[in-house]
Structures are given as structure tokens and as C-alpha cells.
Amino acid sequence: MRCVYTDLDGTLLGQGASLFRTAEGDFTLLAARAQRTSDTDAGDDEHSNAALPRAIGFLLFGAAYVALLPFVGYVIATALLIGGVALYEGAPRNWVAPVAAIGGGVFYWAVFVKLLGVHQPMGTLFQGLFG
Length: 131
Prior knowledge:
Elements: H1 30-41, H2 44-49, H3 51-72, H4 74-88, H5 96-115, H6 127-130
């Protein structure tokens, strides 16, 4: 289902401006038709058929996260989850994905542990080193 906000009263784009008005001020759906045409040209059916395998992939990421969390700890498991999902979604394989994954793991740990006071699992792998 798709929805179009037409802004007939001028509250979004300003008085007299609208994505669905002609130069004369008449209402038109040509912009919506152009959007629909570009969506179908991009292979909309191909994406709808890939929804189930994609959802299964995300479920597998969640299962792997839950399985690894007690062993490797919160920061590493979260970093692996962020990095894995980024690569699964087509992120470029360069230095940005691992830096974002590690930064995200540390950021979420800091939010939960330092800011909110909710302790996260350290993991049995590192318990002897830090515990």
C-alpha cells in the first residue's frame, strides 16, 4: 500500500507550492504516476519475491547473536551483529564497516552500562582476563 501526501493547503511546502499542482494551480497526479513508473522499472516484483529469504537471513543473524552473546560478550557480539548486517545489506567491503561495527558496539555498551546502569554480559571468553 502506498500513500501520497498532496499538501493541498500549502502547509508543507508553503503557500501555493505543491508537488501535485500544475503551473496553473490545478491538481494533478502526474508526479505520482512518474513515481509509480520508476518503482516498477526498478524491479519491484524482484524485491517482493526476496522478502522471505531476507527475513530468514535476519532471523539467522539474531540467532547467531543470542548464541554468541554469553561466550564473547556484549561488545563483540553487538559489533559482529552490526558488521554482519551491514555487509548483508550491501555495505562496501572497506574500512568503514568494521569501524562502524566496533564503534556501534562500544557506543551501545556505553549507553547501557555507563549511562543507564544496565550491566551487559562480559562473556566467558574474557571473564578470566577482566573478571
